[in-house]
Amino acid sequence: MRKPILSFIVCFLCTYVIHAQVQYSTTTLQCPLSGTVHLQNCNDTFLAQVRNLEIHEPDESAEYEALMRIKTAQQNKYPYKANTHKALKTTAPLTAPTVSMSFVADSNSGTPPDNYLCVSKNNTCVSVMNSFISVIDGNTGIMTKRTGLKTMSLPVGLNNIMNDYRYDPKIIYDPLEDKFICIMLNGVNAANYIVVGFSQSNDPKGNWNFYKFYGDYKGDTTWFDYPAITISKNEFYFTGNKLGFNTSWQAGFRNSVIYQIKKADGYAGQTLNYKIWDSIYYQGKPIRNLHPVKNGSSISAATPYFLSNRNFATQNDTVFLIRLTDTLNSANASIQINPLKSNLAYGVAADGRQKDTAYTLATNDARILGAFKEGDEIQFVNTSINPSNGAASIYHGTIQQVSSNPSIQAQLLSIDSLDMAYPNISYFGVNNGNIVSVINCNYSGPRTFAGMHALISKAGQYSDWTNIKKGDSNIVVLSAKQQRWGDYTGSQIDWNFPGNAWVIGIFGNAKRGYGNYMARLSSPYNVGIPPLVANKINAISYPNPCYQFTAIDFTLAASAVLNFDMYNSNGQLVGHLLTQFCEEGVNRLQFNIGYLSAGMYHLIATNTTGAPLIKVPILKQ
User: Fold this and answer.
1) Mean pLDDT per segment of 10 residues, for the chain of length 621 residues?
2) Structural domains of the chain, count
3) Is residue 420 part of a domain?
4) Residue 161: CB atoms within 10 Å
5) Range of the domain at 606
């Protein structure tokens, strides 16, 4: 137990702090560089993996049984509402987001998929999941590199065949440094390590510096699980739960921890000086599942906030607002905890229903899964039961006056005939002084195959759901009735173009497995591209993507004069195609875009009053 600790710890300083209601301790350590790898040169010819289809993950047997008892009680208490509703659309005051680019990001994932993403300023997309990393051209959707997480991180030297595997990956793009940070876990119990890679450049296929952090750093027989990440101007943070060796979640959970690391040292391949905040308690009870609040429109120089709730509660209205007050080297840094009472309770949801099968999709618990801060406001999302219809739904909370007098208002996003889970959220711009956010999640239902969709929120109002990817079949991978579904989705602002965001989620593919799907969403409230009016005209573009000539077919209920204009992905007018009187019925617009640079464009057709009736995304290759 002690030997692996001494192999990488240069110094070990521990401080305990006890206030009237808040307790925590800090541990200061060092971690040397384990090695460097050039991702493009990682050869993983067969990309092979073996996954057990019978059992759950190593720590889950008792946790699974206890959580299932809660879910069964919830389903009995809040039965599904009988409803013949099949459509995803409702009457909504806001205009829905549009899908400006989408593609299958990867396939053949592990169980659960654990898919996540990040996208750079040069439109390079990186997808991670159990247990692979893929680099994709965001302009074309073409994969340019794929390799195993284990192959990528071989320099860390973890080569025990019984415990040398990678899982729970997360990745983040740093727009200030134009680089990437990737985190993954290795093994459980005494073999548990946290593996972190920092890219040396803006090319994710280039060199990465890798570090390993031993899970049982105190020698107290605990290991690290379920990472979540964020960055500030100068620092990288990740959180997770410490669990006792070979124990259930009831007896085994010890506490949640925060790691605080200077980014520049990781990018440079230097020894990391870092701090761990652990044993975080409020009124004698541990705070569990600390979720880092990510940045909104820009990367903040301030240390971040974190959120937590009572994730195993059947109904609870408490949300914990946690603040790490200062930077790594500050002698005055501390943790502040503020328990907030929401206007709306959340609770563990029953599992997701599926079409044409009795197999269900696991919705996990009610932990917070996504959050961002813009100005003095935080918005967050988690999965929750909806007591009025029994469906797994999305709990959307807004904390205002975060720094002075914080308070929460929340709403449940729900559809009777669907179960929704694993939400995420990102900043999506500002409109009329109000913060706009985009919320994405996975969905499934008794008449709907598993897919993913998204909507827009602004000032307590919502749009209809935009379907990003429909499922091709139900998901049946394990032999048990309950199938894994998450354990999370990804969402990130498009750092090049405000009012756009990238998301990743799961759909049921034709082989009854996990489809990993990535999409770029555009806000109708982005400057330059107006939203469609209610009587919009359906149109089909082909070929799409295209190199030179393309055609758009559309049908008019009545003759009309239409203005056809081309916009780029930033909402800027590229050119006016023509103004023409169009006859009633089917029409076809043909034009040449060969002179345009490669990228995403929108063809917008407006009537004589300026109302947009047609909006078609076109990918120029």
Assistant:
1) 36 65 95 97 74 48 76 93 51 87 85 94 95 92 92 89 85 98 95 97 98 96 96 98 79 90 98 97 94 96 96 97 96 96 98 97 96 97 97 98 97 96 96 94 97 97 96 94 93 92 96 94 72 56 73 82 85 85 82 82 85 84 74
2) 2
3) yes
4) 6
5) 539-620
